Each structure stands twice: as structure tokens, then as C-alpha cells.
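FAQ
Q: What does a multi-component entry look like?
A: The components come first, one per line:
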Amino acid sequence: MNTLAANSKETIESKGQKINEFSIHVATVNGSGSQSSNTVLMRSIFQMGIPVSGKNLFPSNIMGLPTWFTIRVNKNGYVARTEHVDILVAMNPQTAVEDVKSLPKGAVCISPVELNLDKVRQDVIHYLVPFSQLAVEATENIKLRKLLTNIIYVGVVAHILEIDQAEIDKAIAQQFEGKEKAITLNVNAAMQGRKWAQENIKKIDPFKVERLDKTKGKIIIDGNGAAALGCMFAGVSVVTWYPITPSSSLCEQLIDYLEQYRKDKKTEKATYAVVQAEDELAAVGMALGAGWAGARSMTSTSGPGISLMAEFAGFGYFTEIPTVIFDVQRVGPSTGLPTRTSQADLMATYLLSHGDTKHPVLLPGSVGECFDFALEAFNLAERLQQPVFVLTDLDLGMNNWMSDPFTYPTTPMDRGKVLSKEELEKLGGFSRYKDVDGDGIPYRTIPGTEHPKAAYFTRGSGHNEDALYSERSSDYVNLMDRLNKKTETARKIMPKPVIDKVSGAKVGIIAFGSSDFAVLESRDQLKDAKTPTSYLRLRSLPISQEIVDFVNSHDRVFVVEQNRDAQLQKLIIMDYPELAPKLVPVTHYTGMPIDAQFITDSILKKEQEKK
Amino acid sequence: MVTADTSPAAPAPKAPQTNKLGLTLADYKGSPSTLCDGCGHDAITSQLIKAFWELNVEPHQVAKLSGIGCSSKTPAYFLSRSHGFNSVHGRMPSVATGAYLANHKMIYVGVSGDGDTASIGLGQFCHMIRRNIPIVYVCEDNGVYGLTKGQFSATADQGSKLKDGTANHLNAIDLCGLAIELGCSFVGRSFAGDPKQLVALLKAAISHRGTAILDVISPCVTFNNHEGSSKSYKKVKETDTPLHELGYVPFYEQITVDYQEGEVRTVELHDGSHLQLKKLGQDYDPTDRNAAERAISQAHKEGHLLTGLLYINEESQNFGQVLDMVDTPLSRLKSDELRPPKAALDEIMAALM
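Then the predicted structure of the entire assembly, as C-alpha cells:
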């Protein structure tokens, strides 16, 4: 008998079964190939119609350091990170003792028998599994044994939680699409784990899944993949990038999609160009060169790359060249925690570069918005004639999220104010930097336009309305004021905040980006704690006017964000100083995705202090 | 009172000469130069104007780009009917690369200086060459930073002196030697004081469909034209050692000048034009990469400045060919060519369910 019952049986039984509401924590060594097994586990639960989310907490390393994968199963659809662990799969000997110690009483621990974890804690339920022995039985190939151990634990977990074998098989088939040998090997190994568990484990824990219909018609995708799709359907044609975690997979997935969907049907030639640049300075320089020459261009990076792009970002703002820059945020400053999540580039991107510079920034709060805002970013960049930033983060970008399928764009591309040779002929020429329409946005021409009056000179030095070199104070002031007018135009046309105003609520919450998942859950917790809240989710910078009314209609407004310095709160005060007294920062900067309990506790504590 | 019939016939004003497009030389000019009188850069600008005019290039088909510095100001002084781009310091190659990807049908001229290229921009210079981006890249090389008042640049020769007598103790970066080492497909060196050689090299570079590096020694009359400087007019005139006499024959003309057997080499360029290299002294084969590297290093030892076409490789693939892009410039693709149909999104969504 390999199973050891915990002595906390009574507590569990009094609680009864816990169906479709628990979280699994899988501790492995990175580079051991556990990622695909964890995805199979997550997908199989998803396929049973149960809301689920997965998070990979990984080190900045290729092989040998600890990695944790968390799967949260929640019938109510809460998908934010939770601190609570119900089931631990402790596969990493280096961290096993620590991992078990951190479990709450009554949790489940599945571990290799030789780790003797039952000696560490007696108040958790241990299922000790002879993984090495099962792996030996699964294959003669020594190299494969380590990999198959991962899918064997999936089989064990599947038995314990009562996940349908058919769903495991289906998820394996999807994970290893087209690789028949791998599929067979994995299906058999998973079955082997399940069989062993059936024969040897006496289930005494309360956790199980039961089929629901809450994921029907939904997709699972990571934010980087969603953004990549948005870029492709936006018609991006020049993609220039430099590898950096956690942004690389955006361009890598985009390349795969482009290769499949953006080849000319007749000639098989590419309707796009992708360049892996020598650094981020070159990546953004290329993106601006392409935007200037009339292509839809983009680059994608993370914090350190943003720092390197600073000079060109100001250049693009001052010379009015469209391009799209993705920043998948990680923890800084410097190299910081390169595989952890953060929202601390908000100010850096909004104000990137020296001099008076301000950029439009899009703040997607879901994978759906990663897609929609990527599409919109290209329209805005060409409409406003300036670099547009899209700010996501590691949590949103690299983790898998459920979503409704994305919607195909119904509106035509907005290519902005571009003069054709016919229009030039009619107008008899043009002034590149003149505000003809009163919205701050001038007209431009694309190099190569066949007209003697099409040409103009782009320069980062002072220039007048005719794009001629000028150091005159009045020309400079005119230019800077017009650029500011453009910011005001952006304020009006960028995505508006999503507002949920609860009548009678005295407390408001403002948040953006991936904090949304935790805020939604926290609001329910707060409601239960008799603190109803209204919510404004900001979706772009510059900050829309709607925020003024929202703040004014509440006694206190908590600004929830994942950085130390309360950057959003500061930016709100910068534009609307009169709101300052009501804004209370709630900041989370551990590198882990923000969780609902943290927000709830912070707000309740501050509310208590008021009383 | 003067009547029409009695007045002497006024000589008809001589119509300015036009090229095959009906454009005058003036149509290829830009704003007046604001550089110092006698600056070598202005001489190079004149030859750029002449080269494009004589080659009958449509100005709207050209884009001119630069970085920061005295040399980088010059795109404003030629081809006013072409789009211009004065970018940030040392980063023009990346901008040119992006513009080229958006529209590979245009002719790109990049003007840079030795500070812009050999110091702050050395990385981008190298990677542009590595990708073989089609561009005529002119480095107006004077060995000093002019715009910041005369500090040494990385191409300053060892032992060369500033006006105040400060000597440069470091090795010079030879941009041509570096370019050849990096596999550049067209490498030439010239002198602002040799317009005949320079215009032939410029035309050949325009006919080339890859990165063409032209390192043009262009003395700085204000900060580096004194005794003790290795890049003064006087010194360069003394050390200039042309490898050959160059003759450019455009693709639409027959080669008419007859040379004796063995007296001349003819290189065919990408657009069908030819560059004739008439032997001066020793025979020099510009398609031999090793020989080019040896000749450059030998010249350094002997204190000569080798000028002419140092190296050419018309076989190499440029970046557009590597990327296998459609023939239509990406900037001109229509929405339906850029946005896949709804069926594509439906297919992708189904696979993610």
C-alpha cells in the first residue's frame, strides 16, 4: 500500500466535496518538459466545460531551476491567480520540502514515493506514487522516461479528480498535433498513471471535477498569441524585433501565422517582411523607417528594450511617423526579475524620450482586447501619425486564458491622412506639418509618390509647417502646441474606459490591464464584506475625461496597479490634479500576478482606517 | 521710340540643358548649403546631383537618408524633389532598412560621416552590410567631429594631429577594410577633390543592387585642414593613389572606348551598366576579396590612400531576395492583400477551442 492517509480526515469530511473549485500547483524542474503535460491537464478540464486558468511561474533559465505551474479550476469563472493551493504535485526534489511546508492544512500532496514527504507534514493528504518505477515500465528509452513521468502524473491527477480519460486523450492529441508516435506514447503513459492510481490510491480528499457547460465555444490562448493575431489581421507588413522575455513569443507566433496566411496565392511570395534586428534601437529604427515609407510596421519588446528605444520614440513623436510598439512588461529596473510580471512601464512608455513627449498607449485587459487593441493600434498610429504603444504584461502575454472567439474586423483599415498624386495635383502642393483640419493631425505623403510636390524632409531637428529646418522660437512653439492638440484628439478617439457604476457604492476602483481578473473577483469579495464598489477599467492613455465624473461620484477611489510607485494614480493627478484627494493607491509589486484577496484586504484595511 | 522691326535681334536665352526626362541639373539640387566655405562635403553633394541627373533617375524614385553631423545635413542640399530623412545619430541604416522593406523599388542614398558611421553607428553599419540592404552609403570622412568643434573620430589616422597639436594615439578604423571583411558587395573609396573618379563610383553604386559603401575622404576646412593632419586637402592629394581610371557606361549606351588588350577590366553592374577600370600601374582585380584586403593593408603600411573600386561582388543576394517578398512594394499592397479573409480567423479560432 503506497497510500498514506492523513490524520485530518474529519475536517475534510465535515467540509464535504469540493467540486470544480480548487487550485493545482505543479512543481517541476525547468527544462524537464512539464509544460506540455500541464497544458494537457488544463485543457482536459477546460474541455469538460469547467472554467480554468493556467499560470507558468518560471525562472530566467533554460534547464535545472524550479518551475511552478498553477491551474485554477473555478466554477464561477474566477481566473486570477490565487495564493491558495489545494493540490500540490511535488515533482521537484529541490523544492519539495518547502512546497509541502507551504500547503494549507488538509491539502493534497502527490509526490514521488522516494521523497518521503509524508514525514514532513502529517496534516495534509499524501498520495505517494512510484513515478520512477512507472516510467521504467512505460518505456525502455531512458531519455524518454523523464518526459513521460510528467504525463504519468497527469494520469494520476486525472484519476483523483475524475477527469474523463477521453478528454485527456483529446488534449494530448491537440498538444502533439500531427506527431502520431508522441501521441500514442503519451496517451499510454497517462493511462498507466491512471491505472496505477485506480488500483492503489484510496481517495480521501474532497476535490473533483464535474462536467459543466461554461466553456462551450470558448478558446484558450495566451495574450501574445492573441496580439499576434491582431497584428496579422490589422495587415501588418513590416515586423522588426529583438528577442526578449516575455515578448518574444508575440513575434514568434506572428511569424508562424504570417507564413501560413500571408503568402501571395499565385507566387507564394511573402506580403510581409520580418527582421530579427541586431538590437532594439535597430528594431524601432526599422519600424519607423517602414512606417515613414507607408507600410504598417511594428516592433515588440519588454522593459530593457523600451529603454533602448527611448531616443527613436521621441523622434517618431516629433517627426510624426506611425508605428506600433508592444511592451510586454516584466519586472524592472534593469534586468530585474525577467520572468516575472509587472505594470511598472506605464509612465516610461507614456512619456518615453527626452523633451516634452507623450505617446498614445493602449491597455488591453484580456486576450480578447490583446487582439482588438492590436488591430486598433495600427489604425490609431496611422490616424494620429505617431508611434502607438500597446502595454501588456507577462501574466497576460505568456499565460493561457479562456476567451470568447475573436471577432473579425468589420470596419475598413484607417490609413490616415495620406495625399495621393491626384490630390497633390489638385491642391498644388502641401505643407507637411500644417494643421489643416483643426485636430492637430497634418497630411503626409508616402515616398515614391509620383509628383514633383510630393517630397518633404523629415528631421528630428526643429522644423516649420513646410518641414524646413527652423530654430525660430515661434515655429517650435507652434509645433509643440499642435502636437499637444494631437494628444487631445487621441484622448477623444482612443478606447474609452469600461465603467460599472453601482448605485449607492461609496467606494470606486480604478485599474487597468491584467489586474482586471483579480479586481472582478475582489469586487465580489468586497460585496460580501458589505463594501459594494464601482469599477472603472482604464483602457488607454491619455486618460479619458470620463474618469473625472467617476471619481467625483465616489467618496474614495482605489487605484489598483502592479507597480511600486502608483504610476497610474500619478498620471491621473498629472492630468486632473483636482481629483488627487480622493485617489488611494493599492500597489502590488511582488512579481507575481496580483490576486483578489490582496486587493480585498488592502481596501478593507484602508476603509477600516477611515472609520 | 524704338520699334520692333528696327531693334537688333536679341540673342535667344540659352535654354538650360535637360536630361532624358526633360529635367535640368537645377531640378536635382536642394536648398543652399549651410556648411563652411570649401567644405569637402559640398563637393560630394555636387557629384551626387550630377550623377542622378546624368543617370536620368526620376527624383521621386529616390529617398535620401542620413544620421547626425555635418555630413548628415547634406541631404537637404540635393534632390529637393526626393523624400528626405535626417534620422538620429548613427542609426540611419536601420531607418533605411525599414524604408527599403516598405518599398524595395526605390533607390536609397544614405549620407553619413565618420563619427556617425565609425563610432556611434558602427553596429548598424555592420548589420546593414551583413543584410546587404540596397543603398548607396556615402561616408563623408574627415577624421573629426565638425559639428561639435573638432574632436577626433574613429577614422582619424594614428599620429594625426588636431589644430592644438593633440595627437591621435589609436588605430584608425578603415571602413572599407571592415566592409570587405563583413562581405559587403560593393566597396569604393574616393576623394572629394577628385570629382571625375567620385561621380563614376557614385553612378556605379546607384547601378548596384546591394549595399554600396563609398568612403569619401572629405577634408574639414575648419578643424582638420592643417599641417600635421592626415586628412587635409594637401596631405590627401599627396597620398591619393588611384587604383585605376574609372569610366561608367550606362546600360542604354554601347561601350565605345577601345582599350588595348589587358589595359582595362570591365565590370557589369546589376542594372546592365558597366564600369570600366583602366589600369594604372599595377593590375588590380576588384572581384578578388583577399587581394583587396591585402592591398588595403599594404597601403596603410606605405602611407598611401588607395582610391577607386576596391571590391565588388555582383553575385551576392540582397535582403529583399532573401526575404522573398512580393514584387509590389509592401507599402502599396491593398487591404485585401494585407488582411486575410474571415475564413482564416474562423479556422484559427476553431483550432484554439
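Q: Is there any commentary attached?
A: Sometimes. For this entry: DSSP finds 21 helices and 25 strands in chain A.
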